[in-house]
Amino acid sequence: MRPVAEHAAAVAALLGPTAAETATLADARGRVLAEDLVAPHPLPPFANSAMDGYAVRSADLAATPVALPVAADVPAGRTDGPPLAPGTAHRIMTGAALPEGADAVVQVEWTDGGTEQVRVEQAVDAGQNVRGAGEDVTAGQVVLTAGTLLGPAQIGLAAAIGAGTLRVRRRPRVLVLSTGSELVAPGEPLRHGQIHESNGPMLAAAVDEAGGRGELLRFVPDDVEQFTRTLDDALAARADDPVDLVLTSGGVSAGAYEVVKDAFTGRGVTFSKVAMQPGMPQGAGHHRGPTGEVAVVTLPGNPVSSLVSFEVFVRPVLRAAFGHPQPERPRVRARLAEALSSPAGRQQFRRGRIDAVAGTVAPVGAAGSHLLAALAHADCLFVVDAQVTRVEAGESVEVWLLDG
Ligand SMILES: Nc1nc2c(c(=O)[nH]1)N[C@H]1C(S)=C(S)[C@@H](COP(=O)(O)OP(=O)(O)OC[C@H]3O[C@@H](n4cnc5c(N)ncnc54)[C@H](O)[C@@H]3O)O[C@H]1N2
Ligand code: MOO
């Protein structure tokens, strides 16, 4: 059987880095900056008030209490505020530009709140309650470097320096195609012998969660001609914005109707038994479609096998392709809460729940690769090495955190 690392390397070789493109801020979250982002102006762009109150010259408050005429009103957003004459105050709101000549702001709570004349009870130092221009960012500063993952704070910063769009790496575009004559679309009734198609929606969601662009095609029965036509039609229809990867589910083991294997064998996709459980039957390579070659990864049909294989082989490669700084799931070690056994010669990926405080991981459900409900209640996978057949309670295992 092929070692997990060897198949992982074969999948990694399929996808190169995606190109840069321009994205709106609304479409930038979870993506990676393709170029350094430079501030065209400082932040704050101008000295402004940190408090609602009165802009003053601090020297005018040498002896308090003191009464000063209120010569102007400066709400936030006023662009034509006059200079502050000595011996006067301007009523000012948080975020409003500090008038020329003022060097401090007295918060309204330290005054009588007057609008014609204000009585100030307490003195302020020069600079008090003033946010200086460029305190946060200077003009010309590189505020975010190429390769930065864009989360809410980074998008906020980009907006603050006035960037309406950003140069980011393109999301890998992934087509998902499930196979199986037993499949029925969710929402439609089942007859005996049929099941609802769950791998497609699951894998498309997994692609999106990883940062890619998942597109779910209508599943096909175990029919090579229909499979190939569906795939080629879908690729042809996307010729303007080509697909980076095709993910198939099912049809790759040893049965009489292995549609994916039959369609691709000897035509650029290599099928292997990989030394893991779940996820033994795997395939990877290129399909020559109507628009040229497209990378293909064929995942096994058992639902847990499908998603675990995605986690092990596809997710890190998709993320690396668009420059994600952390392609892999965070990995920690934890003590196993209960003993379990594992087949010899296959690296086992069990579903678990981690207790980060206690440093333990408990198995969720048994090893069966049809146990989708257990997977849905797990927050991690943990790994039992290929040569290990039994792990005792308290022994340390590697854990992949799924919500990280
Ligand atoms: N004689 C052998 N039989 C099997 C072997 C083997 O080595 N020799 N391997 C087993 C292992 S391990 C796995 S994993 C599966 C993989 O099979 P396929 O990838 O060919 O998948 P299918 O046979 O099409 O389906 C397997 C299983 O999963 C269900 N399924 C398939 N697609 C979906 C879907 N889109 N949504 C929900 N469920 C799906 C399907 O109904 C089957 O129950 O093969 C073993 N057999
Ligand atoms: O490889 Mo299969 O995934 O064990 O059920």
UniProtKB/TrEMBL annotation:
Pfam families: MoCF_biosynth (PF00994), MoeA_C (PF03454), MoeA_N (PF03453)
SUPFAM superfamilies tied to this protein: MoeA C-terminal domain-like, MoeA N-terminal region -like, Molybdenum cofactor biosynthesis proteins
EC number: 2.10.1.1
Cofactor: Mg(2+)
InterPro entries found in the cross-reference section: MoaB/Mog-like_dom_sf (IPR036425), MoaB/Mog_dom (IPR001453), MoeA-like (IPR038987), MoeA_C_domain_IV (IPR005111), MoeA_C_domain_IV_sf (IPR036688), MoeA_linker/N (IPR005110), MoeA_linker/N_sf (IPR036135)
The reaction(s) this protein catalyses: adenylyl-molybdopterin + molybdate = Mo-molybdopterin + AMP + H(+)
Gene3D superfamilies hit by this protein: MoaB/Mog-like domain, MoeA, C-terminal, domain IV, Molybdopterin biosynthesis moea protein, domain 2, Molybdopterin biosynthesis moea protein, domain 3
Pathway membership, UniProt: Cofactor biosynthesis; molybdopterin biosynthesis
Keywords for this protein: Magnesium, Metal-binding, Molybdenum, Molybdenum cofactor biosynthesis, Transferase
Chain ranges of the MoaB/Mog domain: 175-320
Function as written in the Swiss-Prot or TrEMBL entry: Catalyzes the insertion of molybdate into adenylated molybdopterin with the concomitant release of AMP.
Family listed: Belongs to the MoeA family.
Protein name: Molybdopterin molybdenumtransferase
Organism: Actinomycetospora aeridis
Gene: glp
